[in-house]
Amino acid sequence: MTPEDLVNDVKRALSSDTRIDQSMVRVSGEQPGVIVLDGQVDTYNEKVLAEDITGRVRGVNDVINNIGVVPPIAKSDEEIADDVRGNLKRDAWVEWSRISIEVIDGVVFLRGTVASMVEKQEAENDARWIAGVVDVVNHLVVKPEITIADAEIERDVRAALIKNTRLDLTEMNVDVTDGVVTLTGEVPNFTQKRIAEFVAFSVPGVVDVVNELHVSGAVRPAA
């Protein structure tokens, strides 16, 4: 597949998804397997979705997301903070009382403690859907209610990865230190890199995931 073919496939994938206005997103790719997204969208969620959709296209090994967020209607930082707080309060997966919210020029900062990586991600999801948000910086610290030994976490992460039939663990390594899971090695595509990270942070006891997996054949263009 040529870079031009891959760019066209990504454009078709974006245009077929009703959650995003593909006409606002520019797609390019000069390095084999590496797609660059530019342009601007109305919401931060669209920016994240564009990257997710692109990463699922066969042949994509890496995604560089340079999309800007320009909300069509101006909202004050106080209004955005109130909306984020409301979403957190309504979310049964999140203990909102342990989370503090600060909004600066549309950028949402989440701070505090949560019980799991899943709760941390759900809190971020609650913020990213809010109109007026241009970015989310997630500083939430994971403090599991029950401490689990690193060796046990590593065993459980490996077991979870093995159970996922979409993953090839041949060149993948797992290391756990103080609850932080580090994934290293090589995977055949961008989707597997994302799946491995999702599987790892879903394991009880994990406080963070450092995804250093390399996609075979992916070479990022020089900055």
From TrEMBL:
BON domain location: 2-71, 76-144, 149-217
Superkingdom in the source lineage: Bacteria
One Pfam family from the record: BON
Regions crossing the membrane: none
Protein name as it appears in the record: BON domain-containing protein
Protein source organism: Candidatus Aquicultor secundus
Organism phylogeny: Bacteria, Bacillati, Actinomycetota, Candidatus Aquicultoria, Candidatus Aquicultorales
